[in-house]
Amino acid sequence: MDEPLFETSARKMVSYVMYEHEVFRGKASNTASHLKLPLISSVSDMTLKGHAQHLSKYYLHYGALGLSLRCHSSLKQGPIYCNFDSKQIIYRRKYGGGNGQALAKAVGVTNECKPKVLDLTAGLGIDSFILATLGCKILMLERNPIVYELLCDGLARASEMTSDTVDLAHITERLKLNKIDAFDYLAKLVPENKFDVIYLDPMFELPAKVAKAKKEMHALQNLVGADSDASKVLRIAMRHARYRTVVKRSNKSPGLTNQKPDVVLGGKSTRYDIYINRRLPPKLKS
After folding, report:
1. How is 186-246 classified by DSSP, letter by letter?
2. Cβ-count burial of 136 within 10 angstroms (0-12 exposed, 13-18 middle, 19+ buried)?
3. N or C: which end of the chain has fewer CB within 10 A?
4. How far apart are CA 98 and CA 218, in angstroms?
């Protein structure tokens, strides 16, 4: 995918990068430079908000939370940022079911089997982080430049944290991130570099009630847009996975391909379509 296209898209969706204190200026400046966006201070931001109708819907903010995506027009929408020490992830790490949770089962994680995973659509990295806590090594791909910056910032902060007796830095060592389109990456992937499992979680449309309740998720969907090439990516992914390809879908969404999955793991709102090339061995290390 042509990178300048994403840069143009970023400028249409995001007005500028703002920092709330001089201590954050350096990091904010780097992000603004990467995205080719204006850099402003919080004082300038207060002035600009009076002209919100002339601005893009969102802006990026650097402050105590790290890098976050914020909306000009909706005060009800909270900041969107990558936080691997959130209550949601702590709860999932403690009580999510470990190797027994649907994600782990879909990927094939057991006490002795820790597949090497390629996550084609990293987003804010939650699923990859959960797999890393279970012992897998993951290469995450993210093509959207704004989401990539949010994820980079979250990984950087997590790499310096020790939280709740869990060394987040040790977990993040199993995570690598690459800014590239999934199709382009797979097209260049040589056979000897096959991953054990390839994971695909394309953006799907949220039901109206869910979108209204989960404003942050809805904003991320607006920013990323639909993954219209997901079926094409899946077809090539199935040829590159050593053992299996896993697709996360909404229960109400159709499959990405006419090929019937070998296994389907269903949940309350999502399911995992699993396409198997060969059986995972009982013992496997990333």
Report:
1. HHH--GGG-EEEEEE----PPPHHHHHH-HHHHHHHHHH---TTHHHHHHHHHHHEEEEEE
2. buried
3. N
4. 28
> What does the pLDDT look like over 198-249, one tens digit per residue?
999 997 665 555 544 466 667 777 777 767 789 999 999 999 999 999 999 9
**H runs (alpha helix) in the chain:** 3-13, 25-35, 42-48, 87-95, 102-107, 126-133, 145-158, 168-172, 182-188, 208-213, 215-224, 230-240
d(CA 107, CA 282): 13
CA distance 97 to 113: 16
Calpha distance 146→216 (Å, rounded): 15
Contacts of 93 (CB under 8 A, 6+ apart): 130, 133, 166
pLDDT tens digits for 93-118?
888 889 999 999 999 999 999 999 99
Is 136 in contact with 148 (CB distance < 8 Å)? no
Question: Residue 75, SS3?
Answer: coil
Distance of CA 70 to the CA centre of its chain: 17
